[in-house]
Specification:
By secondary structure, the chain is an alpha+beta fold. The chain is built from 2 helices and 4 strands, in the order βαββαβ. It has a domain of 56 residues. Helices cover 26% and strands 30% of the residues.
Length: 81
Amino acid sequence: MASAAGPMRSVLISYPKETDDSIVEQAKKDIEDAGGKITHTYTIFKGFAAQAPAQVLEVSVAANGAEIEDDQTFTTQEDGN
């Protein structure tokens, strides 16, 4: 895949557990080929975190049944303000 122009998104990408590993690996490769970066691979579920161009997420990753969510920070305690 050619380098995709456009803004990068920090995302969490997950797949149904029955998804073949080759589909997940191809999605990672497509992201890296487009100039993105895999920032973490999860073992508790089938998925990974990445910084990726929006275009590759729409064209390659979502086409194979992936759930794509924006990566966010969550806290368990209020900051006291």
